[in-house]
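Researcher: Re-running this chain for the archive, since the previous output was lost when a drive failed. Same request as before.
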Amino acid sequence: MASLWELAVLLILILANGYLSMAEFALVAASPFRLESMALGESRGARAARDALALKHDPNRFLSAIQVGITLVGIFTGAYAAASFAPLLVPFFSSIPVISGYAESISFVLVLVLVTYGALVLGEVAPKRIGIHNPEKIALMVARPITILTRITSPVVFILSRSTDGVLWLLRIRERPGPRVTEEEIRILVREGTQEGVLEREEQEMVEGVFNLGDRKVYSVMTPRPDVAAIDLADPLEQNLRTIESNRHSRYPVYRETLDNVLGVIWIGDIRVAEIRGKEPDFRSIMREVQFIPENATVLRALETFKQTGAALAIVLDEYGSVAGILTPHDLMEAIVGEFTIQGSPGERMVVKREDGSFLVDGLYPIEEVQELLETGPLPDLENFHTLAGFVMLQLGRIPVTGDHFDWGRWRFEVVDMDRRRVDKVLLSPLAAQGKEDPPPGMENNRIP
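Model: Regenerated structure tokens:
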């Protein structure tokens, strides 16, 4: 029988292999940002974090050192096991006449198979899973020993590194500089945090809303021209006061005769001050300077404009200099946190989800948000329209009438209400709920009889 000492040596070799494997995966998987936060200070843990960061910044060095250690331990483990345990099995297999001539070979192979199995479980798979599950904690534990190992094996590591660089050069593989972290990686981390309960669903939606701001244009979040409530200086005072009373906004653009001739902005508070003093409001005297923003500007640029100027309302202009709509900080807030209605305001919700999974959507709903709502792929010809109504009209090729519908992807788009020539409400229904298979991306236009 093998002595306990021989078994102990074999177990130590297998565990040494496991330690190196665990260290390798932990250092690779450890987050540099978490290690940087741990590296602050002069505590023992902070010094270990700095050692781990130094290794991560030069992965070629520590990976080569660990690979040298794993290779040497593996070779020594196999040789030691074969020399120590294979002879013990030879008498047993020699006693079997059929295989007695191959007793040494069979003993050698059997010992290697058993040792390999134990090395895979205790020296590879289990340690690697441990390293992945607790990367930062284990990286701190192994940083100092692995640093010492890299110094001991530095001559061999140097040769391996240069040889590896030569192979990569021959294969025309070059390291491309890139960001340490991408926006998509942050999105994935936020989603995982929500699934794990670290973040609330609302927090995830807000973070994703902030990221979406960089890709969105002003026209996708503005109040479009048909919905703009404004004051015309050419109208009687009573008519303008009725406009203010019926809309209940805090600020109104002021123009003369045509909305393209915007002169300024009035604040409802200034009107109230005049009324308190017993005077009729003079819109010309209380009018304030107006801010203009091009419709193709990014939402982030508009946000910066509001911060710099202190404006609470901006006029959005199209490429021809005509008024396309208005923009307020409230619109930017809704782009981040989603649509909400202030109590007492006359506005309606732009999206209503129904029990059957369909959505009743306002025709002026931004097309980018329609894509997010339906979780569909990019819609065609996005440069030709900005709203759901524009998409419907483009697909139908004409001014719709109530009842027109078409299918796109997994959804049916049905016009359920028209405001004269404007698409007012569209019903988006999943085709699966109607017992239909998903059609390929395309459009089937049908008119409901």
